[in-house]
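Re: your question about Phosphatidylinositol-glycan biosynthesis class W protein

S., sorry for the slow reply, the queue was backed up all week. Below is exactly what I fed in.
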Amino acid sequence: MDPAEYRTLHESQMENNNGTTALNVFMHIAPPVFSVFHTVQLLAVASVAHIPVRFLIEFSLIVFPFILLVTVLHQLALKITLALAVVSTISAVHQIRNRLHLVPFVQVPGKSPQFLTCVRALVNLTTAVCILAVDFHCFPRELAKTETFGFGLMDIGVGLYVFSNGIVYKVRPAEERRIDAVRLRRILTSAAPLFLLGFARFFLTNEIDYQLHVSEYGVHWNFFITLAFVKVFGTIIMDLVRDPEVIKFVAITLLCCHEMMLHLGVSRYVMSADTGRADFFSANREGIVSLPGYLALFLASVYLGWIVRPSEEITLAKKFLRRAAKVALIALVCWKMIYVCEDMFGVSRRLANMGYCFWILAIGCSVTALFMFFELFVYFVRFEEPKSPDQIIKTDDFCIPYVPLILEAINSNGLFFFLIANVLTGLVNIMFQTFLLGNAAALTILVYYMFMLCVAVSFLSINNVKLKIW
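Result:
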């Protein structure tokens, strides 16, 4: 097909999408969580120590099924999720039924929760698969980014990145929080790589005339610039807030103010097709107007991170279970709020409105709670005897490293993983007219693409190389 004609086809496939349901999107996110559960169980039973073999098993059971789920098996997402949930529950109950006498003594490490590694890595993994899969015909259009309002699998990417960065934000002691010229310079310096990536993406895509959809963020704005501004403003607000308990009220207040401004006419201004893009603000109105929503999402995620990450070395199982239950309860409230917001004013990624923020929090809290229950299960099943803080300091065997190699590697170099995924996605789109390829060719390219990505980050992880700048 002629390049100009193909570009028109590509853009038409990305426009006027009204999405699917919030539940259907979650049914594509949940299966990898259960896949991780069964992969860890298999590796523990088989005692696989050989790294290449372990890598192939993990790729075959975690990455490859997800590629199939978002392409040729997407219509079976609900059945697959329910089947995996039932099998996982039966397996877990079977393994813990004879260990109830250990309940009062089971301990979980407090300082380095591995469930957060799984959450963050899963966000990166799903995003990497989807940013290329969406360019193929086998990817369902209802899961692509929505034009105005609605639920799409591709809509959750930037929101979950904000969530995953907020949940691991380290709240500084109150006595160390002060805003001065030195602190501001450090904040801007830490965000500078993201600004540079944003500018580089803009100039590169313009130079090669890469297909872009200005309704996502605007003409000059993009994913990296949004993350950079959220990092800067979020860090400043966190330095001003003395009590971590106050963070949730700041997030709620900011989100309510944002929604009110949208209702006062800002929403119509952003969404209107008649609004020109003559100046910088109007050209990038989606990215600029959505910032308060993403900032509120970041602050809410920081509060959740403060809940789930204890400061003590040892956490008793009952206390850990209460934390997991609290996160699950927050998830249920957020799921309810999604439908309340949808009925009142819709859910929009372009605006990052209240409905969108509750949607991201619902998904993030649900996945976090599932992995928290999984971590508790691991320590419950493998628990031997109680240890004191002094014993834990002297020994290294208290922490049970259950996280799959691929997820650990992705989390260690998350931004590098995402950058390489973007570069390879661009190269594939330059080399192939992806929308014209059949299912077999699309799956072959996707599997090879993800295999190379996972090999690259696993190689870095095995050699203890970290390229993190966030």
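The two ends are 41 Å apart (CA to CA). The first helix runs from residue 3 to 14.

Happy to talk it through on Thursday.
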